[in-house]
Specification:
The structure holds 2 protein chains of 2 kinds. Chain A folds into 2 domains: 143 residues, 60s Ribosomal Protein L30, Chain: A (2-Layer Sandwich), CATH 3.30.1330; 159 residues, Phosphoribosyl-aminoimidazole Synthetase, Chain A, domain 2 (Alpha-Beta Complex), CATH 3.90.650. Chain A is 29% helix and 22% strand. Chain A has 9 helices and 13 strands. In chain A, the strands form 3 sheets. In chain A, strands 8-10-7-11-9-12-13 form a 7-stranded mixed sheet. In chain A, strand 12 and strand 13 form a beta hairpin. Chain B has one domain: HypD, alpha/beta domain 2 (Rossmann fold), CATH 3.40.50. Chain B is 37% helix and 16% strand. Classes of the chains: A alpha+beta, B alpha/beta. Chains A and B meet through helix 7, helix 8, strand 11 and strand 13 of A and helix 1, helix 2, strand 4, helix 15 and helix 16 of B.
């Protein structure tokens, strides 16, 4: 005599279960995964409506949109995981226009065999990051690829936001005489990740700096609406970001090595891995370029925010048709700070 | 960082720079070669040349292990990596070195070869232990610094009874390369390359000691100062060389006393002697065939010798005709003397090996010193003076052009 309740559906086994091809087939297994995982974690009215789209009202101002794919390995690292990183990364790209991020979309490419326990951990981390940022994930998509054709999970997020009237922040607006500021210490994320990479196992207390920066940006714009450029120095680090901005704005930059904030542990790890912190990735830092006369006010506003505590003024923009980024070394010399070539490769001796 | 920052102190550097300027005040010039790529890198990265008076000139030497590796040897490594099932473990610097037919280990990897980048020979050994059903070859390169760890790996492989591990040995010797430069016609007979003294290797000397350099001081009358790789080490060594030249001395002096002794690391030298023996000759990029300048694995360790195991045949391949790496490695030319420098040959698409490793003379100059090649050398003083005309019509701008194709928004 069966004692099964009427209408009972066996829940997804998040403890021992794994992604299989049926989770991407469009059938009942996929619907159940969406219902018991994504909907439950991201929970909001737009998702509950069950449409393939979401429709939202937009406040006045200019619409800003950014998208970012996340393929980090390992998926879990000191200070974060691919889930919160996927939220922060896109929110920060939107925020670097001066916009307030409003909505997020998320797409998952899952590899057959991926443990559901890990997936739940990642989705919960995303939900938490979105909640803390106050930005709902309003639409999404899930695809499953055969074993060996993905690396566990890839997450693409897209964000939209709104720039208030009068705020014009873009990479081509740096001008000679502008000051260059960074919001905190350099290289934390890259070193945290590298400490777990194959062949490079070393122990470190460094945690990723992954964080959503839009609140910091809002405070900065309140303090100094005249900000010319904002950018988060992610892949390729500060050096790459400054080269991008110098190229876009067609001017040169001079930074001072002595003024660059780098944690001693990060400096030490970079030293023995043969890396340069200038090229190591950050996920919770920004570069701000603004007229020199406002630099002190902006620095004070940044330091008053928890994510800008270690903010520092690191250099100046000048006229240079070659668009060189240069550095006054701590040693008293001068050198180019060039684009990164390939991946940053360790030196052997 | 304790014990590192002390050797990068700006105030001390300026004090030494002052002493160099005072003591090199005469009319003569001081042409000094830093043999090691590590010194080349430090000089470029810390902007040391900016602190030197105009008559003290640094010539970059051939001591970059990746740069002196001939194309034929890279071709051999690629052939190995392309063998089905084989894993080639290599130091990361070698993967972008251009080989024949526009190939490199990195491109071979993209085409399916299993190339693993490792930090040490021990990592290569571990890969062999973890993959008992795969053949693992360690692509061993470098001077005396990286040779002892290779010897240790071979000995450990024997102790562990590993049958799937072997070493493709390309270890080369520093003293023979220095002799080759000093005996080159440019230096000895033609006098086209003024060479007054050497900054001796840092890490290499911790192994071989300072004694082997005494021959150069005596035989060729050139002073040698062994120096560490930190920028203050280099500054101090330059001052010591200037003093020797002013006094008319040609001695071996040791600035790197915290790590180098006259006899070096006796244990490491014994390990090298146990596992390796001299090759009669070896091809160096830039220097050509140099007698007794490299090591091969002794017959007693033949089962770990990839050259014997896979019957590797060496074929010499000439450099690209436009490439001046050879002359640059001998100190005959500067990177900017090369027609393809910064145009066809860049770190993104290197033609020659000097553009690959950050220790190579061309890569170091391209990455760190390019601003010196253009008329504008802006500083803080010019920062306040906006000049819209120049900005709105960028005049060429090599960096901007290179950069534009690379812009990758996160």
């Amino acid at each position: 005599m069966s004692k099964v309740r009427e209408g009972y559906v066996r829940p997804v086994d998040f403890k021992h279960g794994r992604i299989d091809m049926s989770h991407g087939s469009g059938g009942r297994a996929m619907a159940q995964l969406i219902d018991e995982l994504f909907l439950r974690e991201f929970d909001n009215d737009w998702l509950r409506a069950g449409n393939d789209f979401s429709s939202m009202a937009m406040p006045p101002g200019r619409l800003v949109m950014a998208t970012d794919s996340h393929v980090v390995s390992p998926l879990f690292f000191p200070g974060g995981d691919i889930g919160c990183l996927a939220v922060h990364g896109t929110l920060n790209d939107v925020a670097m226009s001066g916009a307030r991020p409003l909505y997020l979309a998320a797409t998952f490419v899952l590899e057959e065999g991926f443990p559901l326990a890990d997936l739940r951990r990642i989705v919960a981390s995303m939900a938490n990051a979105a909640r803390e940022a106050g930005v709902p994930i309003v639409t999404g998509d899930t695809k499953v690829v055969e074993r060996g054709k993905g690396d566990g999970v890839f997450i693409t997020t897209t964000g939209v936001g709104c720039v208030p009237e009068g705020v014009v922040i873009a990479g081509d607006r740096a001008r000679p005489g502008d000051a260059i500021l960074v919001s905190g210490t350099l290289g934390d994320h890259g070193v945290a990740i590298m400490s777990l990479r194959e062949n490079l196992t070393f122990e470190t207390t460094i945690e990723s700096d992954t964080a959503a920066l839009h609140d910091l940006v809002a405070r900065m714009i309140d303090a100094v609406p005249e900000i010319h450029c904002l950018r988060d120095p992610t892949r390729g680090g500060l050096a790459t970001t400054l080269n991008e901005l110098a190229t876009q704005s067609r001017c040169g930059m001079m930074i001072r090595e002595n003024d660059l904030p780098v944690k001693p542990q990060v400096a030490a790890a970079c030293e023995f891995l043969g890396l340069d912190p200038l090229y190591v990735a950050n996920e919770g830092k920004l570069v701000a370029i603004l007229p020199g006369e406002h630099a002190d006010s902006l620095l004070a506003a940044m330091r008053a925010h928890p994510l800008g505590r270690d903010a520092a003024r690191i250099g100046t923009v000048h006229d240079d048709p070659h668009g060189f980024v240069q550095m006054e070394t701590a040693f008293g010399g001068r050198r180019n700070v060039d684009w990164l070539t390939g991946e940053q490769l360790p030196r052997i001796c | 960082m304790k014990y590192i920052d002390e050797f990068r102190e700006g105030d001390l550097a300026r004090a030494i720079a002052g002493a160099i300027a005072r003591e090199a005040a005469g009319s003569r010039s001081y042409d000094l070669m830093e043999f090691c790529g590590g010194h080349t890198h430090a000089i470029s990265r810390y902007g040391i040349a900016d602190l030197l008076p105009g008559n003290v000139r640094m010539i970059h030497g051939p001591g970059c292990p990746v740069c002196v590796l001939p194309i034929g040897r890279i071709d051999n490594a690629i052939e190995l990596a392309q063998r089905p099932g084989l894993i080639l473990a290599t130091y990361a610097d070698t993967v972008r070195v251009p080989a024949s037919k526009s190939m490199s280990l990195l491109k071979a990897k993209a085409r399916g070869a299993d190339v693993r980048m490792v930090y040490s020979s021990a990592d290569a050994l571990r890969i062999a232990q973890e993959n008992p059903d795969r053949e693992v070859v360690f692509f061993a390169i470098g001077f005396e610094t990286t040779t002892p760890p290779t010897a240790v790996a071979i000995r450990q492989a024997r102790a562990l009874g590993l049958t799937n591990f072997s070493v493709f040995c390309n270890h080369v010797l520093t003293p023979s390369a220095i002799t080759n430069i000093l005996e080159s016609p440019e230096v000895r007979e033609l006098g086209t390359v003024p060479l007054d003294g050497f900054i001796g290797p840092a890490h290499v000397s911790t192994v071989i000691g300072s004694q082997p350099y005494e021959f150069f001081a005596e035989e060729f009358g050139k002073p040698v100062v062994i120096a560490g790789f930190e920028p203050l080490d280099v500054m101090q060594a330059i001052l010591m060389l200037v003093r020797q030249l002013n006094d008319g001395r040609a001695e071996v002096e040791n600035e790197f006393t915290r790590a180098v002794t006259r006899d070096g690391n006796v244990k490491a030298k014994a390990l090298i002697a146990e596992v390796f023996e001299l090759r009669d000759s070896f091809e160096w990029r830039g220097l050509g065939e140099v007698p007794y300048s490299a090591l091969r694995i002794r017959p007693a360790f033949r089962e770990f010798d990839a050259e014997a195991r896979y019957r590797i045949e060496y074929r010499s391949v000439p450099d690209n005709k436009a490439c001046e790496c050879g002359a640059i490695l001998r100190g005959v030319k500067k990177p900017t003397d090369c027609k393809v420098f910064g145009t066809v040959c860049t770190p993104e698409n290197p033609i020659g090996s000097c553009m690959v490793s950050s220790e190579g003379a061309c890569a170091a100059h391209y990455t760190y010193g390019r601003f010196k090649d253009v008329p504008i050398v802006p500083g803080e003083a010019s920062a306040a003076g906006p000049s819209q005309g120049a900005r709105s019509s960028p005049s060429g701008g090599g960096a901007a052009a290179t950069g534009a194709s690379l812009v990758a928004q996160p």
